[in-house]
Design a protein that fits this description.
CATH topology of the largest domain: TIM Barrel
Helix content: 25-40%
Number of helices: 11
Largest sheet: 9 strands, mixed
CATH architecture of the largest domain: Alpha-Beta Barrel
Structural class: alpha/beta
Shape: elongated
Number of strands: 17
Radius of gyration: 22 Å
CATH superfamily of the largest domain: Alanine racemase
Strand content: 15-25%
């Protein structure tokens, strides 16, 4: 099977680039002296996790991070038992976590709520729990100095095993120095929260931080036990713009077909729209706005210059062709690829990867993805 044989739109994964990205992060984490607990919310694939477990100088990840209980069930069903469900737990989900744990999984949960801590502690089979700490993103979590931290810890009792934070605001960094500063704040905040809990008599074994930018830019991981990056596996245009990796390190793209031409406007219409690409415009906040994605040729090469998806309908994308290439007009049926603004969202609507190796058009494998919640 070749890319030219595939129905479009579909998701293409370059295994060579993926393996390079996995090895880079594994070596960085090893050098930092901490464990790697990769976030699988982007990849959602056991085949990808197998490669991650084989990458780097050590024995691979000690465990994984998930964002849905569907992922937890899928990965535990394939033998990956040690995981953190990194979304605040709710009462309705405790039984499902307990059921998976009773079947052999070791799913740890997070909370920043006193009432929820009481519900966890009162459950017949309370899961091991981390308290979520806010290190600056202001999405979820407590301030490390909040008096509620110790109240929640007391309520959890023996279920408490650690603290967790996520520097999602590192994506706002536009220089290595800025991201390094955020990484240090992330580290220091998590360590301070852990130290407060230990001083109050709680045994804290996990101090968990992580985003792809801070994992690669952090100067020190002293006091940290593990890092949870995720998007580093695949990369995307936004991460390339903020310096997490280079544009050649983007492993995933959407294969699409030309379905319409507008030669007078210098545009084409493709069959990858907002569902196949997402409507994320994250590069719009950088110096290099790439619309809804950068268009490359079927081999993944930048032979189309600065051709970008400028409008995304549900099933259609409007591509403005590079104006420095006048007269170029790919005919209807031409297959192209679109590099993602935000790979997590691009991949979300697809149920499988068509895997290639490098610039080859040969499909060497088809890897399923888990979906839903």
């Amino acid at each position: 099977m070749r890319l030219s044989d595939l129905p479009t739109p579909c998701l293409v994964l370059d295994r060579q680039v993926l393996q390079r990205n996995l090895a880079r992060m594994a070596h960085a984490v090893e050098a930092g002296g901490v464990a790697l607990r990769p976030h699988m919310k982007t990849a959602k694939s056991m085949d990808v996790l197998k490669l991650a477990m084989a990458a780097g100088p050590g024995s691979g990840p000690r465990g994984i991070t998930v964002s849905t209980l569907a992922e937890a069930e899928y990965f535990s069903g394939h033998g990956a038992m040690d995981m953190i469900y990194a979304v605040g737990i709710t009462p309705q989900k405790l039984d499902q976590v307990a059921k998976l744990n009773a079947a052999g999984a070791d799913i740890k949960v997070i909370t920043d709520d006193l009432a929820m801590a009481a519900r966890i502690a009162a459950h017949p089979n309370p899961p091991r729990t981390l308290i979520e700490i806010d290190c600056g993103e202001h999405r979820g979590g407590l301030q490390a100095e909040d008096t509620l931290l110790l109240d929640i810890a007391a309520k959890l009792g023996p279920a408490l095993i650690g603290v967790l934070t996520h520097a999602g605001h590192s994506y706002a960094g536009r220089s290595d120095a800025a991201i390094q500063e955020i990484a240090e704040a992330e580290r220091a905040t998590a360590v301070h929260a852990a130290e407060r809990l230990r001083a109050s008599g709680h045994e804290i074994t996990i101090v968990s931080i992580g985003s792809s930018p801070t994992a690669l830019h952090g100067r020190s991981f002293e006091g940290i036990t593990e890092i949870r990056p995720g998007v580093y596996m695949f990369g995307d245009l936004f991460q390339a713009e903020i310096g997490t990796h280079g544009r050649n390190d983007i492993a995933v793209s959407a294969l699409t077909s030309v379905v319409g031409t507008r030669p007078k406007e210098g545009k084409i219409l493709v069959d990858a729209g907002s569902i196949a690409l997402s409507k994320d415009r994250s590069t719009g906040d950088t110096a290099n706005d790439l619309g809804f994605g950068l268009v490359v040729d079927m081999q993944g090469q930048a032979s189309l210059g600065r051709s970008i998806v400028v409008k995304a309908y549900q099933e259609h994308g409007v591509v403005a062709l590079d104006p420095t290439m006048p007269g170029y007009q790919p005919p209807i049926g031409t297959k192209l690829r679109v590099l993602p603004n935000h790979v997590c969202l691009m991949a979300a609507a697809h149920d499988r990867y068509f895997v290639v190796d490098g610039n080859s058009e040969d499909v060497v494998a088809i890897w399923p993805r888990v979906g839903g919640w």
